[in-house]
Design brief:
binds pyridoxal-5'-phosphate, 12 helices, alpha/beta, elongated, 8-stranded parallel barrel
């Protein structure tokens, strides 16, 4: 909490040291022969892709994954010279940008790949791509039985080079899961079939964060790790296997404190009314326009001066309110009072108290991934 943005009393703090340390822990886990490809899609899960990628590189990462052309370009324009894989295809109209910025697409469609090869050849380049295999998740990829045929249809092309073959697991976070075993067996067989046909696979990879942590025998040449690098566990199953440090905190300053009469309403719809004398209602300039979901209204806590306080009334687009009981016995009074300018922790640690992305996710009925992505909407990031 060393400094704040100049123009707004609300911000996201990103601990780059934590990201570096988490990356180092994954690198140590996979060993020197397995490359670490870091997922920095959705602006680094809300943490800021460019700064996080640099911290991850320092922590031992060697490749990066994005979801869109724009994300790849942002990384390149920041000076990144590392391999960048886009985990999807893009509209044909953007293929020239893939070539210009050396962004490798994940390929699952022959026509797309041939067009990419044409554009690469026209630019006197070799268009590297990774072949996506749909081993059972039914999202993207060619089916295992199509893989050899698709590769043969592409291999003649001088503008194309298969730099990798990969799949994605639907249930990697479950221990001893039958569906996972089916997917990983299909992937192994597909890679074998390609090699038997004399088609080189490049880098073979399949594990996301839970796969890397829970299935270390399946690492192949590279892991595609995301959420764990930001210090978040993808599921309870990975928690006992690895210690991670959350990198994101969300904080703001109290901009106004009121001590309303009993019965006074707070916020839209007056879903909360002051129940007794001596309740302070403090206003914080963050709302659902900043990714603080309105579904948390009246259900979440904040931390102020090292203590939890309940959020009250509906969360607005740009602000919310919380309540502090200032009528506590004398001697405690000064400690429990809230003042204008006090720092409020919406997510993160303050003293002995901590509000985790997991706590917010469980209140919202979602996963920590979505909670951190959402805070990228409008809040400025401060790197520590
Ligand atoms: C997002 C993504 C990852 C990273 O997943 P985490 O659960 O964040 O580790 C890996 N591979 C693909 C294809 C993805 O879409």
């Amino acid at each position: 909490m060393a400094h704040y943005p100049e123009d707004r009393a609300a911000w996201v703090e990103v601990d780059l040291g934590a990201i570096r340390a988490n990356t180092r822990a994954f690198k140590k886990m996979v060993g020197p022969r397995v490359q670490l490809m870091c997922s920095v899609k959705a602006d680094g899960y809300g943490h800021g892709a460019v700064r996080c990628a640099r911290a991850m590189y320092k922590g031992g990462a060697s490749q990066f994954a994005v979801a869109t052309v724009a994300e790849g370009i942002e990384l390149r324009e920041s000076g990144a010279e590392w391999p960048i894989l886009m985990l999807n295809q893009c509209p044909e109209t953007a293929i020239d940008k893939l070539v210009e910025y050396d962004i490798m697409p994940a390929v699952f469609d022959v026509d797309f790949a041939l067009m990419y090869g044409e554009r690469a050849a026209a630019a006197d380049k070799v268009g590297k791509y990774h072949l996506a295999i749909d081993t059972g998740m039914t999202r993207i990829g060619v089916l295992p039985e199509e893989a050899v045929e698709v590769r043969r249809a592409l291999d003649f092309h001088r503008g194309l080079e298969c730099a990798g073959v990969f799949t994605h697991f639907a249930t990697a976070d479950i221990i001893e899961d039958w569906d996972f075993k089916v997917q990983s067996a299909r992937f192994g067989e597909t890679v074998q079939a390609l090699e038997n046909a004399g088609l080189s696979c490049g880098l073979v990879h399949c594990d996301n964060t839970p796969g890397t942590v829970l299935h270390p025998r399946l690492l192949y040449d590279m892991c595609r790790v995301g959420v764990g690098l930001y210090g978040l566990h993808p599921a309870d199953t990975t928690r006992p296997r690895m210690e991670l440090k959350p990198a994101m905190s969300v904080r703001a300053k109290v901009i106004r404190v009121a001590e309303p009469q009993v019965g006074t309403g707070v916020g839209y719809g007056f879903t909360y009314r002051v129940p007794k004398q001596g309740i302070q209602i403090a206003t914080v300039p963050i709302g659902y326009g900043d990714g603080l979901s309105r579904t948390l209204s009246g259900r979440m806590d904040v931390i102020v001066n090292g203590m939890r306080a309940p959020q009250v009334g509906r969360i607005c687009m740009d602000q919310f309110m919380f309540a502090v009981d200032a009528s506590a016995p004398r001697g405690y009074r000064s400690r429990s009072m809230v003042r204008e300018g006090d720092i409020v922790t919406i997510m993160g640690r303050d003293g002995d108290e901590e509000i985790t992305a997991d706590e917010m996710a469980s209140l919202r009925g979602t996963i920590n991934y979505e909670v951190v992505c959402d805070f990228a909407l409008r809040l400025e990031r401060i790197y520590t």
